[in-house]
Specification:
Elements (H helix, E strand, L loop, with lengths): L31 H15 L1 H10 L4 H12 L13 H14 L5
Helix pairs in contact: 1-2, 1-4, 3-4
Length: 105
């Protein structure tokens, strides 16, 4: 029950039942490819060339090493130094490392 001075005015809100069918699905519960596309979209929005390189490497054994190198060195692997990545880009790169080695469903 709503504990406020408005309790009773909105009867549809006066219960604790949650309709799970309309709850937004967390990213980690979405299919693997949807998660990959989401993370690649973040990277592409900030670093299109790096996103292209990841797409070329994706599925190869060297892909995870490339992603780790991007995170650890802050560089792009071809001599172009970076000041660093935005937090959302780092999170996307890290999530891609996890997703790379997961089996496809």
């Amino acid at each position: 029950m709503i504990n406020s001075k408005y309790a009773g005015f909105f009867p549809e809100l006066d219960h604790h039942e949650v309709d799970e069918t309309t709850r937004p699905m967390p990213l980690r519960e979405l299919p693997r490819q949807v998660q990959i596309d989401h993370e690649m979209g973040i990277i592409r929005a900030h670093h299109a060339r790096i996103a292209g390189a990841i797409e070329m490497f994706w599925g190869h054994k060297d892909c995870v090493e490339y992603l780790q190198q991007l995170i650890l060195s802050g560089g792009d692997g071809v001599g172009r130094a970076r000041v660093g990545f935005k937090q959302e880009v780092i999170a996307a790169l890290m999530h891609l490392i996890t997703l790379h080695d997961l089996p496809e469903h």
